[in-house]
Amino acid sequence: MKLLSQLRTSTFQLALLYMVVFATSVFLLLAFIYWRTAGFMAAQTDETIEAEIAGLAEQYRSRGVNGLITIIRERVARDPNAKSIYLLTTDDFLKLAGNIDAWPKDSRSESGWINFTLDESVGWTGSTRLARARVFEVQGGLRLLVGRDVDELTNLKRVIEAAINWGMGITLALALLGGGLMSRSTTRRIEVINTTSRRIMNGHLSLRIPTRGTDDDFDQLAENLNQMLDRIVYLMEGIRHVSDSIAHDLRTPLTRLRNQLENTLITVNNEEAREHVGQAVAEADQLLATFNALLRIARLETRGNAADMKVVSLDELVTDACELYEAPAEDKQQVFEQSLEQGVMIEGDRDLLFQMVSNLIDNAIKYTPEHGRIAVAVRREGSEAIFEVSDSGIGIPDDEKEHVFQRFYRVGKSRSLPGNGLGLSLVSAVAEIHQGRIVLSDTYPGKAAPGLTVTVRMPAFTGVHKRIKATPADPGHAGSEGKAGAEATEGASGSGLETAQ
Questions:
Q1: What fold is seen in the domain 306-497?
Q2: pTM score, two decimals?
Q3: Residues 452-467: pLDDT tens digits?
Q4: Which of 412, 348, 414 is closest to 385 using CA atoms?
Q5: Do the bridges between strand 373-381 and strand 335-340 make them parallel or antiparallel, or are there none, so unpaired?
Q6: Alpha-carbon distance 57 to 69, whole Å?
């Protein structure tokens, strides 16, 4: 798969295109060299044959047939290696002179030039070789063949062809290897950017894309992306700081207003007025719970509450939470199942983990109709501790699952139900502190009420205690949040942390 993914990269495809262009240019160059070299040698051979024919013709004109026979025999005698081929015969192919005994097969040619093999069929006594010759008729009914041994030329052509083939093969192999190395190097750098980007998208906003210090295109791209991330984080922190400041500043007057309404409720005698004041007190409590939840999430996201992690028994913690919510489930006549594997240990903050577990169980009960089913499970899978809550409620559409962890986000189906859309934001913040991840899925896929299964995966305790360092909280909020800690913790439970599935 890794090889296939590398073959699909644009870098490798560009290298492949370059390889094709380069190989084509090398092939054309070698073909030109071959054409010029082999053509020149073939032309030189033909010119040599033409020169010998011219000499024999001159001897024939001056000395006649006997002189032609004599000069052929002299040339044969002077050429013991038989580089030149001669054959003079009568009209009925009776040999008069030459170093072969018979005419080659298929010796007729419109141009007069023939290529044949020197072997036993022509009376050749040496090793089999290739020859090229010209055939014509001499006055008086005689036939003359004059040629040259071209076996060395043919072998040279074969050597050049083999060199071209090897050259092309080596060129393609080197180009392919170079393209692969270049693609691998480029892919590695792109994969670093992709991996870091994916982790940043998953919430690790403090990460930045590493650079090599070469100031090349990739370094410039990484620096630009890092500067963009710095700017985004700066703007996000600004917005978060403003929202947290508003939540903190408004909480005090709201608390005073709520207390005044409660005092008024005590003094009012009219039942209708008492009902209206009571509703106002409830609304004030809801607003205070929302502000407290916002401050709690802000502290979690800055990890101010994660300074001291301890080993926690997840199954015991979930057992305590289930005991707390068994009564609300019975009131709705819901089936409340528990499957808790014993001895599942994690390293974390027990209070935060209990808040996370409680929120998820509370949501399951709230959004599951009467006579519905709720299942809570704890188990260990490899190096992970799993906490899972399943219900048979209204569920969450697939296109909204990735948005429900945002603050104040509520699914359209549940907007009529009580809540403020902060519960899952708190759950997400707690899971992130504990290096966990949350997976949302349908309990009954394809059904009208698919339900929802929330799976929280966290690192299981391995027996080696590792303290998770907390990122310092925003200095601008340190005093205010410390002052309001107890109130925020108290308001974090119940409706203030509820969210619509």
A1: Heat Shock Protein 90 (3.30.565)
A2: 0.45
A3: 999 999 999 876 544 4
A4: 348
A5: parallel
A6: 12
